[in-house]
Amino acid sequence: MKKKGKTIKNICLAAALSLCLTGCGNKGPLDPSNPVSLTVWHYYNGSQQVAFDALVEEFNDTVGKKKGIYIQSYSQGSVSDLETAVRDSINEKVGADAMPDIFASYADTAYEVEQAGALANLSDYLDEDELDKYVDSYIEEGRIADDDTLRIFPTAKSTEIMMLNKTDWEPFAEATGVSLESLKTIEGVAAAAQKYYEWTDSLTPDIPEDGKAFYGRDAVANYFIIGMRQLGTEIFEVQNGEMTLNVPKEKLYRLWENYYVPMVKGYFGAYGSFRSDDVKTGELLAYTGSTSSAMYFPDQVELDNDSYAIDYIVMTAPVFEGGEAYAVQQGAGMVVTRSDKKHEYAAVEFLKWFTEADNNLQFGSVSGYLPVTKEAGSIEKLDQVIADQEITVAPKTYKCMTTIFKEMDGMTLYTNKSFKNGSAARKVLEYNLSDKAAEDRAKVVAALEQGKKLEEASAEFVSEEAFEAWYSSFCKELNNAVNR
Questions:
Q1: Percent of the chain beyond pLDDT 70?
Q2: Is the pLDDT of residue 10 over 70?
Q3: Which residues does 34 contact at the CB level (< 8 Å), separation at least 6?
Q4: d(C-alpha 36, C-alpha 30), whole Å
Q5: What pTM was estimated for this model as a whole?
Q6: Eight-state DSSP code of residue 337
Q7: C-alpha–C-alpha distance, residues 347 and 121, integer Å
Q8: Which is more confidently placed, 236 or 14?
Q9: What's the DSSP call for residue 227?
Q10: How far is CA 259 from CA 123, 168, 217, 483, in A?
Q11: What mean pLDDT value characterizes the chain?
Q12: pLDDT over threshold 50, residue 22
């Protein structure tokens, strides 16, 4: 009887707590006659901003109006601009705007804000059944608090894909026998890039060493993080809030050999702000980039005195030979600024609505982002939403999303856990090797212009000694970043 009485008491307490949170008529601490106004900061621009703003307007006119929530959204420009605005607000910099109620954030930035005690605990507003609707790894990425509670609400995600200029690929493939199948591995891409350089060089026999680059990649940091994971190592291994740096030389050699060496030799390239820009100018044939970048893949190549239409091919991003099928998990989520129950509750209500399958796919089909719930991650559901909402979807975006949906079961999405100085460490991965490759490529080009052959011009940069020197400096810079 004592045990039964205790159980009944616990049920009553739980019911009372539920009533406190949800209020009469499941309105929570909200009053439709006195709506709460929330500000949202994001970095969406162009069609992405249009799609987001349309959904905000729909929410305000329907669910928000009924519950007493009004959302105002503001683009802060780029991701960098948004991060700067958030840091200025936290630090109460003169002239800075007040912190928004909700803002888009990558895990590293969110971790900094969480360490300052400025983020709401979203676990207070989501039960296990609600959390189970989301892709497990997306929820885990958001558990950045010391007590493992949720701080980042997954709203839109992306991974990486490979896109090719099909129009110019076909004559090259026919002439050399290189197949699309060979591009499934990173080593295969490097080998194809060398053949492309040699083939394009052969087209102008009177001009020596004028071969063209085949491939490039956005986000070199992803190449390190995912490449190492494919090879069985977490470069940033985080357990119990402590980060262990893993930099095994033999595995980093494979990364160096399949990025730096092709860059220095001119088989790979990076010229514009993004690799899609380089495809547009005819400098590259293929690139690896975010799924959300598919809409920027050009419809034509624009040369100095000519232009021509091109078709495209979408493939999953290449994996290291013999490596595991890991792919990057990226894309900012939304975080809620710590305030009061009314504002925090209202913010979560909006985010839950925004990530409902139909709404999230409506946003994703325009923006190129992947939906975050398990229900939404299928071609059938995507097609249903497109038909029901009568959405016009860019063919490249649709192809990109469906390619990932088809392959999702065969890949493991990965992102490293957040840690102190994570942003600084990622910058080392992004710029250390890519900057050196650009600098050394310029020296190789200068030597070629003096009449040297490519192998001679690049020899000092691709030697074992050159790797050892880079490895030593890279490890030193990375250690300095994580321990500063």
A1: 94
A2: no
A3: 68
A4: 7
A5: 0.89
A6: B
A7: 12
A8: 236
A9: H
A10: 41, 23, 9, 27
A11: 92
A12: no
Find the mean pLDDT for residues 189-197: 98
Residue 419 burial by Cβ neighbours in a 10 Å radius (0-12, 13-18, 19+): buried
Helices 357-367 + 395-407 axis angle, to 10: 120
Question: H or E stretch including 302?
Answer: strand 300-302
CA-to-CA separations, 365 to 40, 385, 387, 398, in angstroms, rounded = 21, 9, 12, 7
Tokens 């700067």 sit at which residue? Answer: 84
Instruction: Calculate the dihedral angle through the C-alpha atoms of 286, 364, 81, 419, rounding to the nearest 10 degrees.
Output: -80
Q: How confident is the model at residue 5 (pLDDT cuts 50, 70, 90)?
A: very low
Q: Residues 6 or more apart from 4 whose CB is under 8 A from it?
A: none
pLDDT digits (tens, 9 = 90+) for 301-322: 999 889 999 999 999 999 999 9
CA–CA gap between residue 439 and residue 349 (Å, rounded): 50
Closest CA to 53 of 155, 66, 45: 45
Length of the chain, in residues: 484
User: How many CA atoms does the CB half-sphere of 11 hold within 13 Å?
Assistant: 6
Q: Measuring CA to CA, which residue among 254, 255, 269, 289 is closest to residue 194?
A: 269
Rounded CA-CA distance 353/462 in Å is 53
Amino acid identity of 216?
G
CA end-to-end distance (rounded Å), the chain = 60
Residue 150: left if φ>0, alpha if ψ -120 to 50, beta else—which one?
beta
pLDDT tens for 203-250 read 999 999 999 999 999 999 999 999 999 999 999 999 887 899 999 999
User: Which one is predicted more confidently, 19 or 454?
Assistant: 454
Res. 157 pLDDT band, cuts 50 70 90: very high
Q: Pick from 342, 374, 457, 435: which is nearest to 135 by CA?
A: 374
Q: Is 16 helix (H, G, I), strand (E, B) or coil?
A: helix
Q: Which of 51, 88, 57, 89 is nearest to 72 (CA)?
A: 57
Task: Please give the pLDDT value at position 47.
Answer: 87
Nearest-10 crossing angle of helices 379-389, 357-367 = 90
**Tokens representing residue 437 in the block:** 């490759």
Beta strand pairing call for 36-42 and 69-75: parallel
State how far the Cα of 231 lies from the Cα of 320, in Å rounded to an integer.
7
| pLDDT of 14 | 41
Q: Are 170 and 312 in contact (CB under 8 A)?
A: no
Ordered strands of the 152-153 beta sheet:
69-75, 36-42, 102-105, 333-336, 152-153
Provide the 8-state DSSP code for 78. S
Can you tell me the mean pLDDT for 83-105? 92
CA 418 and chain centroid, separation: 15
